[in-house]
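Example A, followed by Example B.
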Amino acid sequence: MAIPFFVGFSGYLLPKFHRYLALGIALMSLAYGLQQLWAPVPLTVQLLDQFGVTLFIDSLSGYFIVTNALVTAAVVLYCWQTGKSAFFYTQMIILHGSLNAVFICADFISLYVALEVIGIAAFLLIAYPRTNRSIWVALRYLFVSNTAMLFYLIGALLVYQSSHTFAFMGLQDAPTEAIALIMVGLLTKGGIFVSGLWLPLTHSEAETPVSALLSGIVVKAGVFPLVRCALMVEGMAPLLGIFGVGTAVLGVAYAVVETDTKRLLALSTISQLGFVLAAPAVAGFYALTHGLAKTTLFLISGNLPSRSFQTLRQTPLYAPLWAALAIACLSVMGFPLLAGFGAKVLTLKELEPWQAIALNLVAVGTAIALAKFLFLPVATQSKDAAPHAMHQSFWWAMILLLGSLVVANGLYLEVYTVTEMAKALLILGAGCLVHIVLVQRVVLKLPRMFERLDHLIGMMSLTLTALFWMVLT
């Protein structure tokens, strides 16, 4: 856990090697995460026993660590020939190490420290271009993040007061207000439901590699502790299931009518996080497939000739670029032969009937939204395509991400039944049909006022009130 921090700060002393150090750390995490996926017994490490400060590493941790490693490695490859400074890579390595710390800790105080470091590193990466716009977006992110963590910290202290431990298990006997405060902090940090509406602006306005990091792995730092608590503490899973379905519906409703590529991807991230939260038992695999696909989509969207779908429909895309875009979209849609198919089948099998119906409808909405990318025009000859200047390292990042989606598909081959494949193709076909017949012809805009800074704090308060009521009942 300490190696990334040591290597990150060493990058300043070895500025010529910062790219190699960042890639080396990501590969080291990948090896460790893969080992944990198949470890026969979870590893438990007591750091401060009297306070319940504990590390717990199992296959769930393994999935999130692998996701972190692959996303970070792909972003490093993407940035390889872009001239980023040692400062950028240092922040990326620190962010990577802090995320790994979140994925292995099993107590509230260690989690608090890791989440705060993540907030600072993400702030510095968002503000990296040093433009007025980027600095404002970064400060907005930091303010929302710190407010959420204040709620969280008060809740963590209340847990210790009632159970004399910071361990996640202390939540079992914690008072109502402690559960509500901790949950609202993590829901906000993870971009869940209305308290996560800070996410579309932040993810869409950040630089392309930073958007990919934020959407691919950083938001999962808020989701992972909720999933872990749901698996360890009785009564948490049904509560998170409600928020998961609500988040999936909210995100896809906005994504279907969105006309900006990066905002659509950010709103789709909100929706997909709902799937992760709804089924804690298979959350690790879903997080992996979503992280790989969404990182791919954000890296590609930064190389499209425009962010407007209206403009893109008039501009044929370079065929290999469209192919990579289509594969990533199809994975999120749950198309067979890609890992997203297995993740969706496993998730839907874990749900209550009403949740399964709702998330099947959300899956159709996801197909409608992402069909906007699938139906973009493709140039039959390279000279007819929109100007493109992707460097070689961009394609190495694509090979890593898309290749991982194909390989991960082999982890759960038992989900491949005729019924499930027919259902996935039906959902995909229905989504494409609705896109062609309706969405492509009608322009509809939903209000964005809830994304304003003052309303974001209000949304947090409303979520807190709802949580009090739900926990009490």
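Example B, a separate protein, is given below in the same form.
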Amino acid sequence: MIFLSASIPVQERHRKYIDTADVIAIRDAVRALATVVIPKSHLVWGGHPAITPLIHYVMRKMNADLKEHITLYQSEWFKDTFPKDNLFFENVVITDKKETLGSSLELMRNSMIKNHPYKAGIFIGGMDGIEEEFNLFRQTHPSALLLPVASTGAAAKIIHDKYLVNPDPRLLNDYAYMTLFKSLLKDQINF
């Protein structure tokens, strides 16, 4: 089981994310990861509106019934703005809406990260939520493989630079994401 934490930074948030974000790389990396993981393993992610349509696109192109290979988490806080792509996925976990956005997201992240036996966590682009999910993930799954894809910039690059000791240089320089993920996840997924 593989966890994906990803988003595309927006101008309104902290500049440290948007200044290094490579939006094309973020989209390419998410599509490649979904293509590599879904047929052979199980992909779990939080339903960011910029990411869910990319995974839906990959599922359509695969032209196979692989719906049991994915789980999408959403907070009820966003119920009125769920992407229409959510309707495509059968395995959607909607966590309760709490009093604040922060507490609603905390509930969703705890459920999404603590309720599954992950072999790896992949972090692509993103903002502060990616950093929060990285910290929760590494505390909860200390033996899981951690892959912040620094070439996508934003929070993934911050995590890569701040937390990894002797990181694989391909996380920073390799944009051939399909080959990269097949190589880095070969021990977590039976190809």
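On Example B: The chain has eight helices and six strands.
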